[in-house]
């Protein structure tokens, strides 16, 4: 079995992690090593660290959730009565194809069965719900560095970012399930 080639967004995530680790370490060494007491250096380190934290934990948890047995028929993954109207209001159909996808091959109807794609949408949705929780955990770093409001802004931004992927999965899944039902 050949190893799957990394997608552009996956390579981007790993590159960002590498760069932000280097920047954060350099800034923390400069600041905490008493080479400089510049708040700009400290906050550049903190921002770099938080970007790395968000990206890295998303990759880690995406692999951890592969271990879960996920039931696509669980009530959590079922379409709710208000969703169609919400997706129309948000104009999901217009922008959903522009969102970055970590592993676009797994959503391909050319390369996968409808069943497989439905299961991938459930797994992906779960990943992004876990990411929502991860985003909130970043608030605890304000206990170390203060400035709760700044960590609240970054946590909120990360949650909004992940929400788009939850919306896309929940928008697409009922359509794929209808196709699957017609096929049967």
Features:
single chain, 184 residues, mainly alpha
Structure in words:
- This protein has 184 residues and is mostly helical.
- The protein is built from seven helices and no strands.
- Helix 2 (39-64) runs antiparallel to helix 5.
- The protein starts with 7 loop residues before the first helix and ends with a helix.
- The model has no long low-confidence stretch (mean pLDDT 92).
Please specify the SSE layout and strand pairing.
Elements: H1 8-32, H2 39-64, H3 83-90, H4 92-95, H5 114-137, H6 142-145, H7 148-183
Strands, count: 0
Give the biggest sheet: none
Order of helices and strands: HHHHHHH
Shape: elongated
Structural class: mainly alpha
Q: Can you give the helix content as a percent range?
A: 55-70%
Low-confidence stretches: none
Tally of separate helices = 7
Radius of gyration: 19 Å
The residue-averaged pLDDT reads 92
Oligomer: single chain
Tell me what portion of residues adopts beta-strand conformation: under 5%
Tell me the span between the first and last alpha carbons.
31 Å
